[in-house]
Amino acid sequence: MITFVRLFPGLLALAIVLPPLPAAAQQRDRLVDGVAAVVNSNVITYGQVRELLMFRQRSLAEMYQGEELRKEMKKSQDAALKDLIDRQLILDYFNTEGFKIPSYVVEDRVNTIIREEFGGDRQAFVRTLRAQGFTIGRFRDIERDKIIVQAMRQKAVRSDFIISPDKVDAYYRKNIKQYSTGAEIKLSMIVLRPEFDGSDNPVEAKRTMAKEIRDKLAGGADFAGMAQMYSDDSTADFGGDWGWIDDNTLTGSLNTTAFAMAPGKLSDVIQIGDTFYIMKVDAKKPAVVQPLSEVREEITKKLIEEERIRMQDRWIDTLREKAYVKIY
Questions:
Q1: pLDDT tens digit sequence for 7-47
Q2: Domains and CATH numbers, the chain
Q3: Prediction pTM value
Q4: Residue 217 class from Cβ within 10 Å (0-12 exposed, 13-18 middle, 19+ buried)?
Q5: Phi, psi at residue 49, to the nearest 5°?
């Protein structure tokens, strides 16, 4: 427990050591920077925004390209700037209200990081900070701000609210799909595609083949063996085995037919475009819905967390209304 002057309660949190920027990027950020926002008398720079975005934008670059990447980058930048503004509003409130944080609290945090992240090697910790362009003083300031922000956020949330059973019930009904497992079938399938090799009617030839295969299967031929011999599908080597599938795997008439079939039954020959299909359902699993009694605690925790976030957001909105905030 962290005790502030005026009996302000706090909360310890995990510390994050920021990764280093490449030397060229550090030099660029020193040369090209600017004011992203002003909160009361405090300036937030684009360099601070970039620092906060370091991990996030690397992952975005791996997921998106072109215009979509540009939009996602802009979205993440806006979110990072909002986060920095919210932090500064909280820090200003902390200082305005006259709260204090004992220096030993920050030092305990730093020592915990050195012990847990660097095996107690203080020199290795200092070398890492220097490689990242941090001084030990700046690192202490960053950790101090983290402690304050998290503690103030917690202070803003009442601890006596409860989630009513009716609210849990309503959430469960509205989001029933989250707690449901749809019906599944274990499917085997033979797929026959015509070979356009100059023959007179390749589609008709493949249709005839499909009917012959269907007749052999109905007469007791081994489905897996026939699939290995004739199927043009990628599952041919596995005897046409598609494994367990849900109703989002196949499309259109294939899906409708497959899920209407009884286990052990063969489908007729199904033609879609120029391709022919023969299916066999080996087994079925019915849809399963988790009862509310099994997920009530999970839903309650989720709703409590959502309410905490709403209360924190409302509190920060009141800080914003009383502050000077200018975004450039």
A1: 333 333 333 333 333 444 444 444 457 999 999 999 999 98
A2: 3-155 (1.10.4030.10), 183-286 (3.10.50.40)
A3: 0.59
A4: middle
A5: -65, -45
